[in-house]
Amino acid sequence: MSVQKPSKAPRRKGKPGLATQISAQAQFDSALPDSALPDSAAPDEPPHPRVHLHPQFHSRFLPDDRDVTVYLPPGYDEEPDRQYPVLYLQDGQNLFDPRTSFIPGRTWQVANTADAVITSGGVEPLIVVGVANTGEHRLAEYTPTRDWKMGGGEAHKYGDLLTQDLLPFIASTYRVRSGPASTGLGGSSLGALVTLYLGLKHPDVYGKLAVMSPSVWWNHKSIVGYVNETASRILHRSRIWLDVGDAEGRRTMADTDLLDRRLLASGWRPERDLHYVRVPGGTHDEAAWALRVAPMLRFLFPAEEA
Q1: CA 135 → CA 96, 102, 210, 215, 285, distances in Å?
Q2: Residues of the chain under the 50 pLDDT cut
Q3: Alpha helix ranges (H) inside the chain
Q4: Nearest-10 crossing angle of helices 218-230, 190-201
Q5: 198: which residues sit within 8 A by CB, 6+ positions away?
Q6: CA 172/CA 184 separation, integer angstroms
């Protein structure tokens, strides 16, 4: 494993309050001029001062190197003895920098959103690590089983990259708290699929999961069977944020409803260790997921548990 020095990076259906909050935030953002939106940044806009890039991170388990981007919370440099929980997110190029995102100029706005919810006192200060996908190999790395038509099935290798290479690197480079209660994993679409798979596979590592618009459909919904297989062996269930937008299509909503029911039947408890929200008007893209970052952080990393 190579070690790089950091460089500054150029519904639950009966829970309407959160859905209303997301919808209201969307309306508020749409009323702002483009220049006021963080993800509309011009290419020459100064980078966030606490976002650091580790380019071309190398792993023993997969052939492709990938960029790793790290967000540090407010006060990190001022409190040298403090340790922080960490949230690892898939598709790292879509999280912080409008120049690297899948849709240019549209990101999850993670740094600015995390700053806001931490400063307001709603979220515990945390480190966020964005792990870039590798383009053409994204599907293979983010899928836990092999589909006879589409291939895939290398999520276990990607999991080894995270747990055996990246987590130790982050722990040796930054001041992090160890243990599942302080370690989260998250993503959207196929990134959500691999998040849930690895969270169930390694409950002793990842205690908080952000499962946003998950691709439950993959390989005949094999992830649902994996929930059934593994749940009985899990002693301490991860806290799971699960969401889907009601503009993502009937199939996606039905699949996510099914996943929610399976998790409940397997012992997850609503609003304690599982929060499911169907987001009104929510679509399957970076702009929609950006609106869910703040409430997701509040559920997974609430300040009162710090």
Answers
A1: 17, 10, 22, 17, 17
A2: 1-5, 8-42
A3: 16-31, 110-119, 138-141, 155-160, 167-173, 190-201, 218-230, 250-265, 286-300
A4: 20
A5: 155, 158, 159, 162, 163, 185, 206
A6: 18
162-201 tens-digit pLDDT:
999 999 999 999 999 999 999 999 999 999 999 999 999 9
Residues in the chain: 306
* pLDDT score for 31: 34
Could you tell me which residues are beta bridge partners of residue 277?
Answer: 243
Task: Give dist(CA 144, CA 56) in Å, integer.
Answer: 24
CA–CA separation, 96 vs 132, rounded Å? 11
Q: Phi, psi (5° rounding) for residue 101?
A: -70, 155
CA distance 144 to 159: 10
Nearest to 138 by CA among 94, 184, 108: 94
Q: 183-189 and 208-214: which strand pairing?
A: parallel
- Domains parsed from the chain with CATH numbers: 7-305 (3.40.50.1820)
